[in-house]
Specification:
290 residues; alpha/beta; Arc Repressor Mutant, subunit A; D-Maltodextrin-Binding Protein, domain 2; seven-stranded mixed sheet; two-stranded antiparallel ribbon; 10 helices; LysR_HTH_N; transcription regulation
Length: 290
């Protein structure tokens, strides 16, 4: 089997057609270079070069071998470069699982910056609720999770991306709910659209805390699987929901069918990036750092 080292030696000699110059190009002495070419000819059972006191020339077999050796050397160089790029996070794949609202902010800006600096890394996105994203992260199904979670499980690193206040989402047709700051206690008897605890325990608990701080526990009549679904239900005039204020900032009023009203003494919720502390994917550090 032809070794990459032998191929490099033969390419140098074949291109220089001079053992002395080829040895200088390879930063080695001439005797081991000559011996390598001689051993190669013996192993292949054919002359690759014709040598005279005045010149070195390629045989027809040598011409064929030169083409193959160039290909082998190029492939070896590309493999080395690709390996180094992958180790530095410049090549590979990054799998991201994110809650629905993260696709509005901050994921677009984070992806744009990451892709501009790491264009050869393939990014794979999955829409997941918080609980499923944390499980997928622990099972190595994704590399980064963008979730609404306060507690950080063991073995997982965290970076807070956003801290948002809650606002009240109400149907635009409901005139009895004012536009200015509302005391949630005044909405205690409204039908509520809720995000169940199994979807995102920390998010659910913060919304409950917001209501309890106002002195009541809401009567839940409708449930949704995401914040976007909650807002779609609000737009259907069936109830109210507590959502992060980013929903208002990003125009998720569904063509004016939803109003966002500030809450008196609101609690907050964080959107955070989570990843395994012992991840072997260098693209993770580049993404969460950027």
């Amino acid at each position: 089997m032809l070794e990459v080292r032998e191929a490099r030696y033969f390419v140098a000699v074949a291109e220089e057609l001079h053992f002395g110059r080829a040895a200088e190009r390879l930063h080695m002495s001439q005797p081991p270079l000559s011996q390598t070419i001689k051993t190669l000819e013996q192993r292949l059972g054919t002359k690759l070069l014709t040598r005279t006191t005045r010149a070195v020339a390629l045989t027809s077999a040598g011409e064929v071998l030169l083409q193959q050796c160039r290909r082998l050397v190029n492939m070896a160089d590309e493999a080395e470069t690709a390996t180094r790029d992958a180790a530095s996070g410049q090549l590979g794949r990054l799998r991201i699982g994110a809650v629905t609202s993260a696709f509005f902010e901050p994921l677009p800006a984070m992806l744009a910056k990451f892709r501009s600096q790491h264009p050869r890394v393939d990014v794979v996105l999955r829409e997941l609720d918080t609980q499923d994203a944390v499980r997928a992260l622990a099972d190595h199904g994704i590399d980064v999770a963008l979730v609404r979670r306060l507690a950080t499980p063991p073995g997982i690193a965290r970076r807070t991306l956003l801290e948002e206040k809650f606002v009240l989402a109400v149907p635009a047709t409901w005139d009895h709910v004012p536009d200015d700051v509302v005391d949630l206690a005044d909405t205690a008897r409204e039908p509520w659209i809720w995000l169940p605890r199994h979807i995102s325990s920390d998010y659910h608990d913060q919304v409950v805390a917001c209501c309890r701080q106002a002195g009541f526990s809401p009567v839940v009549t409708n449930t949704a699987d995401s914040i976007v679904s909650q807002l779609a239900m609000v737009a259907c005039d069936i109830g109210v929901a507590i959502v992060p204020d980013s929903a208002a900032e990003h125009g998720l009023n569904l063509h004016g069918r939803v109003r966002f009203v500030p809450i008196k003494k609101p609690t907050t919720i964080e959107l955070a990036a989570l990843w395994l502390e012992d991840t072997a994917n260098p693209a993770v550090a580049a993404f969460v750092r950027d």
